Amino acid sequence: MSETGASSSIVVVSTFLLFLAVTLAITWWAARQTKGTRDFYAAGGRITGFQNGLAIAGDFMSAATFLGITGLTYLAGLDATIYILAPMVGFCLLLMLMVEPFRKLGRFTVSDVAAHRFERKSVRVFAALTSLTIVLLYLVSQMVGAGALVELLFGIPYSPAVVSIGALMVFYVSVGGMMATTWVQIIKAVLMVFGITVLAGATLQSFEFDFPRMYREAAEVHPLGAGIFAPGGLLEDPWSTISLSLALVFGFVGLPHIVMRLYTVPDEKAAYRSVLYASFLIGFVFILVFFVIGYGAIPRLHEHQELFGPSGSLVGGSNMVAVHLARVVAGDVFVGFIGAVVFATILAVVSGLTLAGASALSHDLFARALRDGRATETEELRITRIAAVALGLAAIVLAIFFEGQNIVYMASMVFAISASANFPLLILSVYWPGLTSAGAIAGGSVGLALSIALMFLGPTIWVDILGNTAPVFPYKYPALFSMPAAFLVTWAVSSRERSRPFADPSLR
Amino acid sequence: MVTAIFFVLVLVMAFRPRLLTGFRGLTYSLEFILLTLVVMGGYAWWRIAHIDE
Known about the structure:
The structure holds two protein chains of two kinds.
Chain A: H1 3-33, H2 37-42, H3 49-60, H4 63-76, H5 81-105, H6 110-114, H7 122-154, H8 158-206, H9 211-221, H10 238-253, H11 256-259, H12 268-302, H13 321-330, H14 332-370, H15 377-401, H16 407-431, H17 437-457, H18 459-465, H19 479-499
Chain B: H1 2-15, H2 24-50
């Protein structure tokens, strides 16, 4: 092993062990603080606005955000901008439309808000099942990506990597609850922002801080030429562009693990502050990742032909652009640090997702629906821990089964489902007095079923994975069709219910 | 307003991509992120100031 390679390995192992030691100590401390359900699901509401802002940023910025957006910018240029602008709009909608009702109407989960007006349990059960679908699909996509990344970065085989990540996330969640998860996310956010800032600085330094030179050199060596500054590099048809944008914007608002974070702060003011801090932090990271790291990588990696395989593609694929760039502009030791940051990132995101899924199972389905709110806190906490273990096992098995699948597409499925099933239910239950429980369930079911069916019948699954010659549904992303359908059915069924003279009042 | 501007930008990307050639696409993207943050900052500041009223 070369001297720099050995230094890199030492940095990876020492940073990783330090992260592990700190987070395990925090988990032990958090477990001692956790006495009841409010402590477990919402850290007792004791997180400050700034801490929660960091944690939201840590929860949202996955490895796909950093490595995926860098890779997309490197490959396709301007089209990657949709992946950074849409979440910013999502944060804006969350701040303006949802923070206040979520704080006033909810307690721990998305389903609390969706079901607050209805006596019947069916809306809560439906919202919990939708949240579980979203969480499980997102968890599996993160684990599949994590397994592949850990294999590439650390040389650990895929299956043991997935099992290790799954075991750690279950430990953090089941032992330390929201308090431990929050601090894992805060530490990860700080590490990630530091790593990305240093990488962007080193990239700019390699161009002597001359932005025009960086963009000019990028256009000179990229196969698309000046096309990397224009739309069309990634999204081939206009309807896909619109559909993906809808899913990313409105799907974000319904993500259960993000919504859940709004309950960890003591009051509404702190909730507003936390969304604002998260937005500024994520905006800063997006600007560096898209405008500096993604474009700067094009000329810098082009100078190192040893990074490309015989077919001309980058070693490790486009997800490794940021890692290769770190080696080229900042050396092997910094690559070690970035590797450890990626691992911390994966753990933080999957822990947040597992907690959201476990709370949907224990709080919504067990305590509120099955036991009608009569379960004791001890019972509910026991079920949460069992649910976290079950969810972790399911995610591990599914991630091993789905090895090699397109994780960007799996993640976009999550956003499409959230935009088509969760978002209409949430926004209408808060802002439309005419919504009935039958309308909510009918509309949500149509959104859920249609988004899944159209993705299944579209080009990515029906043709690329299943090998059929032509797709039944011609577009890659369904939200443009499934989201309006969900709203339409909700309105139609609710209007019909309200017009019936002897309608059951509990349906209202 | 931010959402409307975003979808106008998306529609331009989808149907009139030539309007975003050169450095216009990059410039608009950066301006949009900054605008969003300013709007969010202003809204949050106003909202927090009026919460107790």
